[in-house]
What does this fold into?
Amino acid sequence: MAHATDDLVADDIGEYLRRHEHKSMLRFITCGSVDDGKSTLIGRLLYDSKLVFEDHLAALEADSRRIGTQGGGLDFALLVDGLAAEREQGITIDVAYRFFTTDRRKFIVADTPGHEQYTRNMVTGASTADLAVILVDARTGVVTQTRRHSYLVSLLGIRHIVVAVNKLDLVGYSQEAFDAIEADYRSFAGQIGIEDVTCIPISALLGDNVTSRSANTPFYDGPTLVQHLEEVEVGDDGPGKPFRLPVQWVNRPNLDFRGFSGQIVGGTVRPGDRVRIVPSGTESTVARIVTADGDLAEAASGQSVTLTLADEVDVSRGDVIAEAADPPSLADQFECHLIWMGEEHLLPGRPYLLKIGTRTVGATVTHAKYKINVNTLEHEPAPTLELNEIAVCNISTDRPIPFDPYSDNRDMGGFILVDRYTNATVGAGLLTFELRRSQNVHWQATLVDRDTRARSLGQRPKVVWFTGLSGAGKSTIASLVERRLHDLGFHTYLLDGDNLRHGLNRDVGFTDADRVENIRRAAEVGRVLVDAGLVVLASFISPFRAERQMARDLFDDGQFIEVHIDVPLAVAEQRDRKGLYAKARRGELVNFTGIDSPYEPPGSPDLHIDAAASTVEENAERIVDYLLEPGVLRG
Amino acid sequence: MPRLTHLQQLEADSIQIFREAVSESEHPVMLYSVGKDSSVMVHLAQKAFYPSRPPFPLLHVDTTWKFRAMYEFRDEFVGRHHLELLIHRNPDCVEQGVNPFDHGSAMHTDLWKTEGLKQALDLHGFDLAFGGARRDEEKSRAKERVFSIRSAQHRWDPKQQRPELWHLYNARVRPGESVRVFPLSNWTELDVWQYIHLEEIPIVPLYFAAERPVVERDGTLIMVDDDRMPLAEGEQPELRSVRFRTLGCYPLTGAVESSASTLEEIIQEMLLTASSERQGRVIDHDSSGSMEKKKQEGYF
It folds into this structure.
């Protein structure tokens, strides 16, 4: 590797190491459309910083001859195209991270594809970047994709933009072309609030103004791309901000030491500083900043440390240790920008897991206000969100979380949504502000509680949740079970899906989103009835696992009994007492479970009833037997 | 407050990854290969949990064919640092005496390492394993996540990999699935060497040049580390000043001729010479997609 500082390496390796062990790091993202030459630029950066090893170079030469696009000349793009499948397709389909280094900085490059459908990747790459290099083809100028990329990087909080006007060689190194693109871009950037813009005329293929100044652009007297990347100051997330440390891990090696480990995501801290623990609100004073290299007199954003406090206070993972005078807000309802990353679309009302900082809570999108068209920045109606779509939404969490607006602190305001069943990361969000609603609605404490009511009824309140296909026999069986329990002296109530749809759920249809809302309401009613001390028999198709889980989560452990009334689709369809399957087959009924809408069977129901194998009476009796076991309905 | 240097920032981010992984898993383990990246990982783990000890054991998936100096270093290292070490040797391989000479390098590696690793993870029920892989090692790794999800069969499926935003890692898995976590993802080979230099991290002496008995086969210098190495008719080990840029099974690891006997000289030599790190590994020398294939099969 013939390094740029060959001489120093050869003459005084000690001095070289001293210098290089103290350089800083910059993370940036490159964005461009398919033919803007992005891979070529990154390949060029790696090549020019002499970080391409000889064996890689040999592979590059061979690949260039075999599949290159430069007529057998070196195709730098091949240095960075990764997975075999995509190399054949000639496009990059995921975020790749590249590394190069100069005498002054180490660089981590998030290399993201620019196609329309890959918003997900660009947002991911931008989330950890301090700066964005946006490529513009000198022949085409600022195009729709340029605007989209600029919007996305500014949404993600990147404040420094480099516009690399590429392929200048193909327009004869024309100053007019460059000036026109620069003017065009600056006027657009101003509209979306991007202030720090640097435009550089380059040719990634030929190397003009990439690492060395080009004689072909006498009109340009600014820095080369690499020079700019080496010199730009991006430390604006730093010390001026209030101190924040999300606690990752409680450090207890022995009874005498109790520390709180985490990475500082804002401000600075010193021993003696007054801090507040959020959400508990307890205050204390920082006693020590502990690291394996000795205690520190001060620590700042970016550092991983362990704090000890002067008082014995209760702190756990997920809490934020914050500057006492300027703590983060605490809320459970927010407005946010949400970028959808799941293959399955968003369902408002469905419970997801939300991870912010080191805290994971349950969350639902209560209302998608509008989608943002990333090409036109226009607002569009948003009943739901598909992969790669962005919307402004209201979101609510199942308990209050500490946060700062994303625009103030990326790590305190950025979150991911996780699907509760696949565990996939399905969304990324930026908290904008808290909604005041929840603060003004307080929980009214009552003098008689659930246990008191249950005792006076002499039973253990439960909800028995019947799920299964339409026509499986849920309601018939549930009704028989209720009759039996009633005869035995239990206080019961039967909640039936069809019946609820005549009243409380009259305004709810059968789309996926409506089914979620239908179950949410039914489960909430079930909760009220259980609170009243009753044994509730709830009969709902409830086709989605996530909503049955949501219902279960409303109750205490053991209070929710899931019964799967299982019949093969063919059997249910053959019975078809209500004639619904026939209608659905004729296409007169859409979103019918089992026909054109899925049924997700329970993985491990509390009780599985093979309903086709026995009579409804026998099935009801089995359920009653289960409920009469000691500890279920009776103490 | 001065800006963090790149090594301080890499260190702080790796520590964050260690703490996050431990907090979000039930039964974590660190894969320990005895190489320099493993030394750096242990060093970072010690820093991450100080003054506690790292709350997980190390797992060495052994092949019985490592250099003797590696076994010596390993035992001394874990003893000195009071680390819990689990050693797994694929019992089928032990029984059949699988070795690189009779079975070939690919089968040897697959059975001892890939299969052995799966066995060990299943045996102990680990749901999260730290590995030392870096994104700069090979093109196909540039897109690898820090938290990489593996199916119950230990397979890597590109479609199942999760987007990673900010410092938010999603380690949730279903029963049987597991996570591989790579705290060194954003380090380069040069970063690792600089960090070893700066932090004075102990590494196996094989990385330093010394006179060692080698034979030359297909242009690769192989060290004759013990008498299990069959020599061809007339083949005579000769003493040459060599060192190793990467460590593995001795019959499969090429040495480079060198006189670099200090860390500074190693880094100097690395900066002035011209082949990348993995070139010394015989296993990578097949088709260009080989790394990716191995990943899918669960090699890492």
About this structure: Residues 87-92 of chain A have pLDDT under 50 and may be disordered. The two ends of chain A are 77 Å apart (CA to CA). The domain at 6-231 of chain A is CATH 3.40.50.300 (Rossmann fold). Chain A touches chain B through 86 residues (CB under 8 Å).
